[in-house]
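Could you show me just one protein sequence together with its fold in token form as a worked example?
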Amino acid sequence: MINKKGQTQISFGLIFSMILIIFFIAFAIYGIGKFLCLSKVAQVESFKNDLQNNINRMRESTQGSSNTSNYYLPKNIEQVCFYDGEFENMYLITSKSSCDISKNYMLENVNIAKTLDSSADGKLCIETSKGKLYITVKKDYNEDEVTITR
């Protein structure tokens, strides 16, 4: 006679092991995805801080000057837009992503009215190129705030 009980226990153990392996793989993929999202959020915050520092340095300069800088953003950010909002004046336009990194930000010491002077729709959007963004921050002689241009 064949012992059928032993065969069923091995099959159950094998199935249970496979379920555990699939669970751990799914959990690892989820964790990696969350880590990548956190990395993108940190990169956006770094961009915002670098831009604000550049604005502050330009504002402190005594003469009119201009500085074009390149910034690095996650590749799913397509545009950075400036507008005249009550509590914020910059937002990001992203392509579809599983990571929600689009936020509105408030940049200080920016003359938004002058920045938006040449725009017809009340906002200035600057496109990124493969995660790179080129922005010119300038200050005219005897002005207190800076202007942002492409």
